[in-house]
Structure formats: structure tokens, C-alpha cells
Write a structure and sequence with these properties.
The chain is of the alpha+beta class. It has 10 helices and 8 strands. The chain has 3 domains: 87 residues, no CATH class; 102 residues, OB fold (Dihydrolipoamide Acetyltransferase, E2P) (Beta Barrel), CATH 2.40.50; 59 residues, no CATH class.
Length: 269
């Protein structure tokens, strides 16, 4: 009774539930695209029949079938959405790929031995031929003074191939591959200082670039006031939404401490 009242007061939950089921099932059981399309078609046909046949709408016995058809439609739509996003992340990953062309989408973050930067690929070079192919890659650039001048939107050309992100396989280690997948990143690459070049500057105005510049100025204020290491990562994430430097292990530690709700408030969970 409580659930029925909740659904009555929140009608969109009726759509959200089957959408979520479709996404979860497609992820857990690798449902084929054809099945999801079939559910959408069956659901839409059923809805159309109820719309045009007045007798069905007025029938108390058959009225619940309308909800079943809507349920099927939303499950199929959720599954299709998941598979489309999954497909958009896939790129060619073999030895024939020797070059990448794209733009920086996150400000470089200094690590112990390199700079980590999220890179959106626009083209890949296969056997000396450039081909259009989009996807995100976690780049690790060798430490170089040139990296400090890079900003969001800068186009780069890399002489490098990519590889699938994999965990090290140590017991109880953080599932870094799954974490990056939530950021729509399936691939990684290490690039030395001689294998990348900036090919011009970002040619169009972007509110995101302007916002990133202002954010960097505020981050510099934090650094100048002696805030660093994990304290800097947490403060930057909570106040400015800057989560690139936030170590996944730190998020796991907060979850184990029962303080994940604090990060959840800032949409960092």
C-alpha cells in the first residue's frame, strides 16, 4: 500500500523503474540490441492499439495491459541507451594504430612520474591513413615543461597507440578499470615528451574553457595558501567540482569511513 501511494505521488517513477531495469539487465546479461529493439517495437505497437481502440481503454480488465506495454517500451529504451553509450566508447585498439589526433577535455594533473590528462580522440592513424574515430583516452604524458601550458580544448597530435585499461590483478585492489568506465574511458596510453605536439590552439570560444581558466585561478589560490595533497584534492572536489586529481583510493576510503554522503552532495560519488 505504501509503494502504491508512493508511485501515485511520483508518477515518473513508473518510467524510471523500467528504464533502470533495462540498463541494469543490458549491463549484467549483455542483452542483444535486437531484443531491446523488439521490446520497444512491441511496446509502441501496444500503446498505439490502446490509443486508437476506445473499447480497450474503457475495459477495466485490459486496462493494465497499457502499463505493461509502457513497461516494455521503457525497458527496451533503457537497454538501447546503455548499448549505444557502450558502443560510442569503443575504438580500434591494435598495433596498426600509430597516431592520435584530438583535444584535451580535462586539465592535466601532475602525478609522481607523469601528467594525467583526459584526451578526446577525433582521428586515429591506421597504416599511414587518418580515419575518423571518437572516444576518450586517459593519457599519461612524460613530465615536461610544455605540459604546464596546456589548457582544456588544446588540440594535440600523438605518435602513440592505445591499450585497454586493465587492473593489475592484485587481491582487493581498487577496480580502476570500472572507475574509468564510469567516466566513459576504456583506453590509456603513455606518451613520452618527443611523441606529442600541440597543433595550434583551440579555435572557438567555449564557456567550458573560460570556466576552466577561472577554476584554475581559484585552485592556485588554494595552493598558495599551503593547501596540498589529499586536503587539496577533497577541498577542490567539494568546492569547485574539480575531481580529476581526486585519487580513486581516496573515494574508497571515504566510503569505508561511512562519509560517502559528503561526496555525494557534490555529485562525486
Amino acid at each position: 500500500m505504501i509503494l502504491r501511494e508512493f508511485i501515485r505521488q511520483n508518477p515518473f517513477f513508473r518510467l524510471l523503474l523500467p528504464l533502470t531495469i533495462g540498463i541494469v539487465f543490458s549491463h549484467a546479461f549483455s542483452l542483444p540490441q535486437e531484443l531491446n529493439y523488439s521490446l520497444v517495437v512491441i511496446g509502441l505497437l501496444g500503446i498505439m492499439i490502446f490509443i486508437f481502440l476506445t473499447k480497450l481503454r474503457k475495459s477495466y480488465v485490459l486496462r493494465s495491459l497499457f502499463g505493461v506495454f509502457v513497461f516494455f517500451t521503457c525497458i527496451g529504451a533503457g537497454g538501447n541507451r546503455y548499448l549505444n553509450v557502450e558502443s560510442s566508447m569503443q575504438m580500434t585498439c591494435d598495433n596498426s594504430v600509430v597516431g592520435l589526433l584530438g583535444n584535451i577535455v580535462e586539465q592535466p594533473v601532475e602525478k609522481a612520474n607523469s601528467y594525467a590528462v583526459v584526451f578526446k580522440v577525433k582521428q586515429q592513424k591506421h597504416e599511414n591513413v587518418w580515419q575518423n574515430e571518437e572516444g576518450k583516452v586517459m593519457l599519461y604524458l612524460q613530465k615536461d615543461k610544455r605540459v604546464n601550458s596546456l589548457i582544456i580544448g588544446d588540440p594535440l597530435m600523438l605518435n602513440s597507440s592505445i591499450r585497454q585499461v586493465k587492473n593489475l590483478g592484485n587481491p582487493y585492489e581498487f577496480d580502476y578499470a570500472s572507475y574509468l568506465k564510469t567516466q566513459h574511458i576504456l583506453y590509456t596510453a603513455y606518451v613520452d615528451s618527443l611523441s606529442w605536439n600541440r597543433v595550434g590552439n583551440s579555435s572557438h570560444f567555449s564557456f567550458r574553457v573560460v570556466a576552466a581558466k577561472w577554476r584554475d585561478k581559484l585552485l592556485d589560490i588554494y595552493r598558495k595558501n599551503g593547501i596540498k595533497d589529499e586536503s587539496f584534492d577533497i577541498l577542490a572536489a567539494l568546492t569547485l567540482g574539480y575531481k580529476t586529481s581526486l585519487d580513486p583510493d581516496t573515494k574508497k576510503a571515504w566510503a569505508n569511513a561511512g562519509a560517502m554522503h559528503v561526496l555525494a552532495v557534490s555529485r562525486l560519488e
